[in-house]
Amino acid sequence: MIEIRLHGRGGQGAVTASRIIATAAYEEGKYSQAIPMYGTERRGAPLTAFVRIDDVRVRERELVHNPEISIVLDPLIAKQQAVVDSLKPGGLVLLNTAYPPEEVKIGGDFKVATVDATTIALETLGRPITNTAILGAFAKITGLLKVESLEKAIKKFFPGRLGDMNIAAVKRSYDEVKGPIQAVVKDAPPEKVDIHVGGYGVLKDVSSWRVYTPEIDVEKCIGCKNCWIFCPETAIQWDEEKNKPWIRYDACKGCGVCANECPVNAIEMVRVEV
Amino acid sequence: MSERITRAQIPISELTITPGSACQGCGAALAARLSFKALGPNVIRHGIPCCPDSVTQTPRVGTVFEGGGAQLTGTARALKAIGREDVLAVGFYGDGGTYDIGFQGLSAAAERNENIIVITKDNEAYMNTGNQRSGATPKYARTSTNPIGPRSRGKPRPKKNIPFIFAAHYVPYVGTASVGFPEDLIAKVTYMKTIKGFRMLIVQSPCPVGWRFDPAKTIEIARSSVQSGIWPLYEILDGKTFKLNYKPKELKPVTEYLSPQARFRHMTEDEIADIQETATANWENLLKADEMGRLTL
Which pLDDT does position A197 carry in this prediction? Predict the structure, then answer.
């Protein structure tokens, strides 16, 4: 039995990805299971989902505790979730990052593969929804699924033009994936997990939620306070002396309201590579 | 009646602690931030199950959906008993807790004219549990319980007119506001602080996840909703004095509000014409009432 764990954020489609994998395995005549881990999954909050694939009927009904494969849909999620924790020795980690697997900082007894799924998703779908853009890479490096059965499964979930766009994303990631190689770092420090990142209440730092980061051109600013009054997270602070805004980047979720509301386009949303 | 204020009069100090756990571009988080900014620190915040919006520095108590009105009543009477009527009992509820499940408790509190403030962040469905329809969901909107198919065209029934329902309890103050018009919202909350009795403000707060639009457009959509007459801004005092707070010379077409939202994407021309007709007729009624300055309920 192959057990897979997916790490992602609400809105990236980790749960959909788990269901697509399970459906594609079913298309190939295997038995499969997709389990989302429900908590307070709002857009941007970290979440996990699980998949089991087997040649015989899957009897387990619990969460996956020791996966063989860990798929990470978000480049920065490793800061908040233990993505290689309790992975089986000799397992496999598929990361969404622009770096090649040789430069990945996490290490241990497992193989690492990387694919820049965010860029692929932005270029094929126009939105940073990385679920299908990582599945092609998954099919190639594991050899568990054929791309054709993934395509079939995707067409079930996304009919019409949206399906074609997602299939294009799968094909691109199939071609662009790097690895897998044995993890270079041998003794990586244990992963730190900050529990104040999900759930209700006040969070410590949400800077990893954003794909686009606002940058203010203070020269252009006319001091209308639009960005400040409309920021839902109070990330835009107002400097009364200078009559100009500044940004608390730890509180900014990158929604883009400020850039959209600025009458003189003094705020620009920039994609910062991580 | 609330008095107009300018952007410069809005206090810089914040009562919210951020970052909160709301989604990106959450309208309700902004509604909480602006309302509590205007309410000030002398507040006991009451909550019932709803989306996590902005966390405030005020004390907060919570209860079940149905208990919203009763708990507010208890706090207000206790504050009176200990002689601390300078502290406000404020309920910050979602639309499920106002329009549907919490309605009976609030209606009873309104009928008794309890000395409480209720602010509703209206995101037009049960968004926290995954976009199920509520009494606040507008007609034709697609929700997870109103899918689009051969036998379903989204929600078949129109949105409940809750401001008028509460106005028909003849309470001191009922108002509508929008996160797209922060000066108006803050002016209304500031006015609510100066009077006593049952006061209610319904704030339309767009939800990027449930309404399905780009989070950057939250304010744009809130604004076009008001400008197209779908969500007019008005206040009703004692169930009779009526005032429209935002009167454009000409309304924008409703398509400006509907088309950016994927929950309305399936709508046909006839269905859009239906929404337009309803919005225009409603707007004309409100204009008449505004001219007379009073309402006959």
Answer: 46
| Contact of B201 with B192, CB cutoff 8 Å | yes
Computed over every residue of chain A, the mean pLDDT equals 85
Higher-pLDDT residue of A78, A99: A99
Q: Where are the alpha helices (DSSP H) in A80-223?
A: 117-124, 131-142, 147-157, 161-176
- Burial (0-12, 13-18, 19+ Cβ within 10 Å), A111: middle
In whole angstroms, give the CA distance from residue B18 to residue B34.
Answer: 13
Q: What was the pLDDT predicted at B114?
A: 95
Token pair for A167: 């299939």
User: Is the pLDDT score of A94 beyond 60?
Assistant: yes
Instruction: State how many domains chain B has.
Output: 1
Confidence of residue A274 (pLDDT cuts 50, 70, 90): low
CB spacing of A202 vs B55 below 8 angstroms: yes
In contact, B102 and B66? CB cutoff 8 Å: yes
Q: Which residues of A touch B25 (CB under 8 A)?
A: 232, 253, 255-257
Question: Mutating which of B6, B14, B18, B205 best tests the A interface, going by the most A Cβ atoms within 10 A?
Answer: B18
pLDDT of amino acid A79: 66
pLDDT in tens, B166-195: 999 999 999 999 999 999 999 999 999 999
Residues of chain B with pLDDT under 50: none
Q: Which residues of A touch B51 (CB under 8 A)?
A: 42
Q: Look at residue B2 and tell me if it is in a domain.
A: no
Helices (H) and strands (E) in chain A, counts: 7, 11
CB contact under 8 A, B24 and A43: yes
In this complex, do A43 and B208 lie within 8 Å of one another by their Cβ atoms? Answer: yes
pTM for the full predicted model? 0.87
Say if B65 falls within a structural domain.
yes
In chain B, the residue whose alpha carbon lies closest to the alpha carbon of A254 is: B24
**Domains and their CATH numbers in chain A:** 2-182 (3.40.920.10), 210-271 (3.30.70.20)
What pLDDT does A40 receive?
60
| Domain extent for B122 | 11-292
CATH number at B234 reads: 3.40.50.970
B218·A232 Cβ contact <8 A? yes
Nearest CB among B21, B24, B30 relative to A200 is that of: B21
Residues of A near B (Cβ–Cβ under 8 Å) read 10-11, 40, 42-45, 198-203, 205-206, 209-210, 224-225, 229-235, 238, 240, 248, 250-257, 259-261, 269
Within a domain: B19 = yes
Judge whether B295 and B240 are in contact, CB under 8 Å: yes
Whether B16 contacts chain A with CB within 8 A: yes
Q: Return the percentage of chain A with pLDDT > 70, whole number.
A: 91
Distance in angstroms (rounded) separating the CA atoms of residues A156 and B89: 51
Q: Are B79 and B94 in contact (CB under 8 A)?
A: no
pLDDT for A190: 62
pLDDT digit string, tens, across residues A34-82: 988 766 667 777 788 999 999 999 888 888 888 999 998 888 776 666 7
Residue of B nearest to A43 (CA): B23
On whether residue B63 sits in a domain, the answer given is: yes
